[in-house]
Amino acid sequence: MTEAAAVRVSGLWKRFGEHVAVAGIDLVLPAGRFIGLVGPNGAGKTTTLSMATGLLRPDQGTVEVVGHDVWRDPVRVKARIGVLPEGLRLFERLSGRELLAYTGRLRGLPGAEVDKRATQLLDVLDLAGAQHKLVVDYSTGMRKKIGLAAALLHNPEVLFLDEPFEGVDPVSAQTIRGVLERYTASGATVVFSSHVMELVESLCDWVAVMAAGRIRAQGTLAEVRGAETSLQRAFLELVGAGGRDAGSDLDWLGGGPR
Ligand SMILES: Nc1ncnc2c1ncn2[C@@H]1O[C@H](COP(=O)(O)OP(=O)(O)OP(=O)(O)O)[C@@H](O)[C@H]1O
Q: Where does the ABC transporter domain lie (predicted)?
């Protein structure tokens, strides 16, 4: 039996001037999975996630999320997804709780329900003590966590996260991880981008590898890892960096005249 797709990307292209950021990719991301989109810096991950979430218009191609076209039916899609974008912009002069109250009402949830969910999310994400502090005074990890709470408040079917663990300390990372694991265990889908292979390997059961705007591999973690002993090794082979001896030209470094 084929699994239902949470996200279906067909022939997606994006150019910035002469530069091709995303070169006609096809992706089928199964529902109910913890999915990692991995690739080196500049691979096109953010551009792909931006097009998949209705933030950046593709030059060509389509994206369907839970069966609806993102660009033809944006309202229906946006009601079903949560997004934690790169370089998250938040309303800095609101407190964490005010931000959630505002987001919840924007999503059309009744006030009492927003209050209940906000209290639970603030608690689980360890932000209850900082709920009345202004977002502008939040640390990087706290910003990621309040952004995640805002993205989860309306209980989306698919959650897109761009580098959710970047700049986050191990304690906050563990908290975020716990919330995401609970969320996917209930049948929802998480799609997140990262270049930290160990993290993807320990969290994801499905992986897409991207390099230079193209998809180099997609499938279950075991399929993508293949005969390699780790995702890191498989990744280096796939992106063509497996045999590179980094530093071989730096014979002056750490020795010789200073
Ligand atoms: N708005 C833009 N204007 C011009 N070029 C852009 C723009 N956005 C992205 N690019 C280019 O497109 C390519 C893909 O960028 P993208 O941010 O999607 O990569 P990424 O895989 O998310 O990288 P990273 O892991 O470093 O965040 C890069 O070469 C980048 O410089």
A: 7-237
3-state class (DSSP) for residue 107: coil
Nearest to 64 by CA among 152, 5, 23: 5
How many Å apart are CA 105 and CA 113, to the nearest integer? 10
- The helix (H) or strand (E) run that includes residue 161 is strand 158-162
Q: Residue type at 225? A: R
192 lines ligand 1 (CB under 6 A): no
- Asked if the ipTM is above 0.90, the reply is yes
89 Cβ contact partners less than 8 Å away, ≥ 6 residues apart: none
Ligand 1 atom at minimal distance to the Cα of residue 210 = 21
Residue 50 alpha carbon, nearest atom of ligand 1:
18
CA triplet 179, 183, 187: central angle to 5 degrees? Answer: 165
- 121 closest CA partner among 99, 93, 88: 99
Residue 87 CB–ligand 1 contact under 6 Å: no
pLDDT in tens, 67-104: 999 999 999 999 999 999 887 888 999 999 999 999 99
